[in-house]
TrEMBL record:
Co-factor requirement: heme
Source species of the chain: Hyaloscypha variabilis (strain UAMH 11265 / GT02V1 / F) (Meliniomyces variabilis)
Family, as annotated: Belongs to the cytochrome P450 family.
Record has Metal-binding as a keyword: yes
Record's keyword annotation contains Cell division: no
InterPro entries: Cyt_P450, Cyt_P450_CS, Cyt_P450_E_grp-I, Cyt_P450_sf, Cytochrome_P450_fung
Full protein name: Cytochrome P450
Domain of life from the UniProt record: Eukaryota
MF GO annotations: heme binding; iron ion binding; monooxygenase activity; oxidoreductase activity, acting on paired donors, with incorporation or reduction of molecular oxygen
Length: 526
């Protein structure tokens, strides 16, 4: 015990010396000024002030006090927090050549990701090659070839929501996971409880947990990486997770390769990669990981957004009724929604865009690492600073979003709001929207995500009534307004509500549509 205590003291002394000698110099270039920000504690700075969960809420509080751009110091590391759309555009887009890097975090990037997680890749050759491949698969009009799978999944979603509404989380997650693994690796999904679906979801959740700010001390004290594994259990945890993830994605890819050899491989990203590997300039292992990363990006964000949309329907039922009026007027009650309806359903589009504003999935954003010293409006920002676009705060900028805490899709539809754009056959949409990041690091799969959000929300509005549950005395059981799981991406914890088909006729149409699609296998990609 004494020996272990001496080791711990030695570690602490080493850390203290390291902090002393690596702390950035306080001086800044002449003619510039330091960013404002909260005063920190000796040595640790603001480490103890940042909550380990939902840090974006604290960052918004500080923005209200210190302004739309400020800095915090965590163990000598500068973090710059941005809280308006304009500043985010000025830096991440207009100066993207120096604001497109990522910090290589010891836990998520290195130990868990092994340098193979797309969203966390630093700026460089691998990012450029991977992003080119992803754009070719899901960017622009390429995204529309996956619509048959999304239609297939929307029919199944509606059918199961009406049959078993209490299992809504699984059905919503299955839509995203089933779609992602179908287009990624050609695998079909039935229940959403298949072992490969559960493993994929667990890998995603672990990555989100490990990438959350403050989850691991080693991300703030990289010197801890020099500790042996027996003294640093986080290293063993990260290694095991990395080995598990790589083994799983390689097994999925190997299965597709075997199907190609036998001439039975269905269309998928993996098949496209394996049949054209030289064209894409990716190694075999890189291919497995970039495909896995595409799943990780797609499966979690869309499902979380749909769950938040259902939460909004519970708290703001008047907007569900307005959407129902719109789909009834445009579509009628003889068929389910399809993608031809997009231009004629602006309220559906406004509803899911407002959901992403009201409850952004990646609420704190993914920090960008500044690649060289910069000056913005007289403020000095040092090279190596982590610059956070705090999406939670950006989406609550009062000048752009009046009464920001109120869920109000009209802000996208009415000319009196600053966010209004026309024509309403095109706008609102989520292309380029800050909910998916900023600048050159914005999610390349926005078109695919929008297609999924549109068909899911339109189908729910067309086919379902959602109301609050009643208690034994007939009163409404309250639904929490903000009770969200912690993590890099976040979604509401399970909440009670009632869901049923809007009519017997629509229930029959939904059942027949799903039975026909299932029998015809209409999830097959063309």
């Amino acid at each position: 015990m004494a020996t272990l205590g001496a080791v711990v003291v030695g570690i602490l002394l080493t850390v203290s010396v390291w902090l002393l000698f690596t702390k950035p110099k306080a001086s800044i270039p002449a003619g510039t000024k330091p960013l404002p920000g909260p005063k920190g504690w000796p040595l640790v700075g603001n480490l103890l002030d940042v909550p380990p969960q939902h840090s974006w809420l604290k960052f918004k509080e500080w923005a209200d006090e210190f302004g739309p751009i400020y800095q915090i110091n965590i163990l000598g590391k500068k973090h710059v927090i941005i809280s308006t759309e304009k500043i985010a555009k000025d830096l991440f887009s207009d100066r993207g050549s120096i604001y497109s890097d990522r910090e290589v975090t010891p836990m998520a990037s290195t130990l868990v990701g092994g340098g193979m997680t797309f969203v966390l890749l630093p700026f460089g050759d691998r990012l450029k090659r991977w992003r080119k491949f992803v754009h070719q698969q899901v960017g622009g009009i390429a995204a529309n070839k996956y619509r048959p799978v999304q239609i297939f999944e929307s029919k199944r979603l509606l059918y199961d929501l009406i049959r078993e509404p209490e299992n809504y989380e699984n059905w919503v997650q299955r839509f995203s996971a089933g779609f992602s693994i179908r287009v990624g690796f050609g695998k079909a999904t039935e229940t959403g409880q298949e072992s490969y679906i559960l493993t994929l979801i667990d890998i995603l959740r672990e990555l989100e947990r490990c990438a959350s700010p403050g989850a691991y001390l080693v991300d703030s004290l990289p010197i801890l990486m020099y500790l042996p594994e027996w003294l640093a259990p986080f290293k063993k945890e990260g290694r095991r997770q990395q080995e598990r993830e790589r083994k799983f994605y390689l097994e999925l890819q190997s299965e597709v390769l075997d199907q190609i050899t036998k001439g039975i491989a269905p269309p998928s990203f993996s098949r496209t990669f394996l049949e054209n590997q030289d064209k894409y300039d990716l190694t075999y292992i890189e291919g497995a990981h970039v495909l896995g990363s595409m799943y990780e990006a797609g499966a979690g964000t869309v499902a979380a957004a749909v769950l938040s949309a259902i939460l909004a329907m519970c708290h703001y039922p008047e907007w569900l009724r307005k959407m129902q009026d719109e789909v009834d007027r445009v579509i009628g009650d003889n068929r389910m929604p399809n993608f031809d309806d997009i231009p004629n359903l602006p309220l559906i589009r406004a509803f899911y865009k407002e959901t992403l504003r009201w409850r952004p999935v990646t609420a704190g954003g993914v920090p960008h690492r500044l690649m060289k010293d910069d000056v913005y409006e007289g403020y000095f920002i040092p090279e190596g600073a982590n610059v956070h676009g705090n999406i939670w705060a950006v989406h609550r900028e009062k000048e752009l979003y009046p009464d920001p805490e109120t869920f109000n899709p009209d802000r996208w539809l009415m000319p009196e709001y600053p966010t209004y754009r026309e024509p309403l056959t095109v706008y609102p949409n989520i292309q380029g929207y800050s909910a998916f990041g900023f600048g050159r690091r914005q999610c390349p799969g926005i078109v695919v995500a929008e297609n999924s959000l549109f068909i899911e929300i339109a189908c729910i509005a067309w086919g379902c009534d959602i109301t609050l549950k009643k208690d034994a005395d007939g009163g409404d059981i309250p639904v929490p307004l903000y009770d969200y799981v912690p993590g890099f991406n976040t979604q509401p914890n399970k909440f009670p509500f009632c869901l049923k088909a809007r009519s017997k006729k629509k229930e029959q149409i939904i059942a027949e549509a799903w039975i026909e699609s299932k029998a015809n296998g209409s999830d097959i990609l063309s």
